[in-house]
Amino acid sequence: MEKIRTRFAPSPTGSMHIGSLRTALYAYALAKHSDGDFILRIEDTDQKREVPGSTEKIKETLKLFGLNWDEYYVQSERAIEGIYKKAAEKLVADGYAFYCNCKAKNAKEEGFSRLLRDPCRDKGLKEGAIKLKTPDGETISYTDYVLGKEISWETLTVADATLLKSDGFPTYHLAVVVDDIDMKISHCLRGHDWLPSTPIHLLVYKYLGVAPIEIGHLTDIQDPSGGKLSKRKGSVSCDEMLSEGYLPEAILNFILLLGWAPKDNRELFNLDDFVKAFDPAGFQKTNPIFNRAKLDWFNGQYLRQKTDEELFKALKPFLKEDWDSQKVKRMIPLTKERMHKLEDFVSLAGFVFEEKEPLVVTDKNRAHIKSATESLERLQEWNKSAIDTALMGAVSENKYHTGDFFMDLRGTISGSRVTPPINDTLVIMGKDEVVARLKKALS
Ligand code: GLU
């Protein structure tokens, strides 16, 4: 069998969507499972849509997720070599394409853009943009590598698509085919959005005299509330997810199962495991749902696999500069089991570093706070067992309800009803800080 060569071909139009990361991941695994090559190709021929800095960002993101490429190409640089122009001119010479000089603006005004057959196709013009001379009355089909079924179109429904713009730059339709041929790509995996472009590509392959490569369209990731996953309903870019405190390994594990399933019920995969287990038969045919609770679950799993030291490093971007690193390190074991996302550390343990508004002290809980303050203030030694003994002593001496007593203490110290184990936390906070907060609340 020929070597498997796949490509990830993003357009540099902004930060990387989670769906694009999935496309890249599948293309990577398909290639690497068989010792093939994974190619990164920047499709920047629509320079009006380009967002500066996106190419670098895409590369950074791929590297962060371990998706290292074997070869790298940039279409705008290849365009300068004239390869796309040459291919388009050959298609004209062979009678499969034609020059068109309708200015984009005029075409629109005259309603040409809505016509599938371009008025210039039989004019025999010698310059202008180059468009595909789509035949009428033919059927064009292929078998989708992912969906596993034959898909066909009547050419009557396929437009005379532009291949080369009048500025000499190719459109996506031409560049994608020329490059996939030139780069000896064996499989193209891409988002479902690109399916309507496929008949155009199939015609270009045919007219260039080359058999089409395997083409597979991935399912659409659905939002739990219905419809396509979109930004309006929560973060969908890799950057946003990382900044919310999802770990790269958790994001990777989560998305690889959104559209692919192993033969067994295994759930935890790192990149290497996925490459080894990868089998195209595992591609799902129904649209997966982006279940955030599941993502949180994965993130929790990976957070807990980290050593405290690793977690401390990962937490750095979420901590305030003036938070005492030693205390942060000591709080990590107390919060690790309770975190879903890195940012949860801040909501769970932030009160240790920054005083919060205590939950209200009323006549009802005042007695609890008062006796906690007195018992703690009396302590000579500040450690877990001394604190346990002092507080439990106060509870039994006064016949308090243990749960209520500790809830009041917790609420006063932290301003919250949910915290890491409170006595352990008091040890880390230190006596002065704890007693001062209690006294302040009482006054
Ligand atoms: N440049 C297209 C994109 O931005 C690539 C589609 C394809 O892989 O053919 O997704």
Task: Detail the topology: elements first, then pairings.
Blueprint: E1 5-8, H1 18-33, E2 37-42, H2 54-64, E3 71-74, H3 75-80, H4 83-93, E4 97-100, H5 104-109, E5 129-132, E6 139-143, E7 150-154, E8 162-164, H6 172-182, E9 187-191, H7 198-208, E10 214-218, H8 238-243, H9 248-256, H10 271-277, H11 292-305, H12 308-315, H13 325-335, H14 344-353, H15 363-377, H16 384-397, H17 402-414, H18 422-429, H19 431-442
Parallel strand pairs: 1-2, 2-3, 9-10
Antiparallel strand pairs: 4-5, 5-8, 6-7
Helix pairs in contact: 1-10, 6-7, 9-11, 12-13, 13-14, 13-18, 15-16, 15-17, 15-19
The structure holds glutamic acid.
Residues 9-11, 43, 172, 176, 188, 190, 194 line the site of glutamic acid.
Write a compact overview of the structure shown:
By secondary structure, the protein is mainly alpha-helical.
Describe the protein:
By secondary structure, the chain is mainly α. It is about 45% helix and about 10% strand. The chain is built from 19 helices and ten strands. It has helices at about 20-35, 55-65, 75-80, 85-95, 105-110, 170-180, 200-210, 240-245, 250-255, 270-275, 290-305, 310-315, 325-335, 345-355, 365-375, 385-395, 400-415, 420-430, 430-440, and strands at about 5-10, 35-40, 70-75, 95-100, 130, 140-145, 150-155, 160-165, 185-190, 215-220. The protein has a three-stranded parallel beta sheet with strand order 1-2-3. Helix 2 links the parallel strand 2 and strand 3. Helix 1 (about 20-35) crosses helix 10 (about 270-275), helix 13 packs antiparallel against helix 18 and helix 15 (about 365-375) packs antiparallel against helix 19 (about 430-440). The longest helix has 16 residues, at about 20-35. Glutamic acid (GLU) binds near residues 9 and 188.
